[in-house]
3-deoxy-D-manno-octulosonic acid transferase
Amino acid sequence: MNRFIYSALLYLLLPLLVLYLAFRSIKSPDYRCRWGERFGLAKLKQSDLLIHSVSMGETLAAIPLIKAIQQRYPQVSITVTTTSPTGSAEVVKAFGPSVQHCYLPFDISICVKRFLRQVSPKSWIIMETELWPNSIYFASKQGVKVMLANARLSEKSAGQYSKRMKLSQPMLQSLDIIAAQSLQAAERFIELGVSPSRVKVCGSLKFDLTLPEDKIAQAKILRQQWRDKSAPIWVAGSVHPGEFEAMIQAHKRLLASKPDALLVMVPRHPEQFNAAAEKILASGLSLARRSLQDSVTFNTQVLLGDTMGELLTFYGAADQAFIGGTLISNGGHNPLEPAAFGLPVYVGPNHWDFAEITRLLDDAGALKVIVSADELAEELIVKFDDKLIYQNASEAALRVVNTNKGALQQQCELAYQLIECVK
């Protein structure tokens, strides 16, 4: 498939994109707003630099990079785009009016061309692997210098690109700089036709996360409110439908040996909060909902984290963590946030979006890959029972995070080069 066929298919699929937004808006009201931005119809100002992150995770990783650019180049105007309401909320919270913000339009030629013509950026930084053929093509045609920051490319994604070389290769070869998270990712980009001179291994920005003091303080308060220090608390973070039952089953097994244990279950998407609550109640476990400010008592068995922006705090108040999106075919989410608090971490087998990070944590003894609820329960019980095993895993998690810091400075330098070459 080449770009012309791809573009034609997108025009044919346009009614489905409208239906997609309508469907998402049923369960998540935030998707009812700002449709004009999705189709390049918003009125925007010109900016020197365009930065795109997808959702909350990518945006949180991008925030330190964007702040460093603002500090070094206060005169450079910036537009930050996202694709999800959660990512949008993080941009607004972090930068307010200091940047122009909107959703990135769908990759339909007419929408992309209008968007790029309005913003008219000199350079564009794209986070991770959010690559769209038309967007890259028209940006390159407009003379925009493009950097792929914090770039990851799993074996699975590389295989998909290789099956569509007529579409993917011109797009990848249009990238001026690729700041790869790992040597494996860098090699995959090169195998797909990117010039080695454009690829630099920098590590992951996610290792450079800073735990905010207010989050740490809030986590300590929550811990005191929820349970005695010796009582077991674990978090199932960013879990998806298809994983709710496994988390409940694992917790029931844990409760059989640790009756005072507390599970903090945090669904990935807000539209799944009520569905998760129904699953918990149907299982017979006692439930408190964070959004309702329910008290967490000794008899509370599950706290549903049905709020936004608190997952990091929940990790800080817990002892162990499971990362969702890995027992289903999703690709997983970031295991470094709980690891930064020194928590032993568990993931399912489908963690390809964070394969290198998972491997580092696994090799160090900080993480275990589990395949079932029963195996998860067994691992939780072992760590809660054996303080030495727990301590070894906890120290390993902190060691991996601390020894892999430094990606931010390297990627900042590449971003500065990108900006300087178009000044």
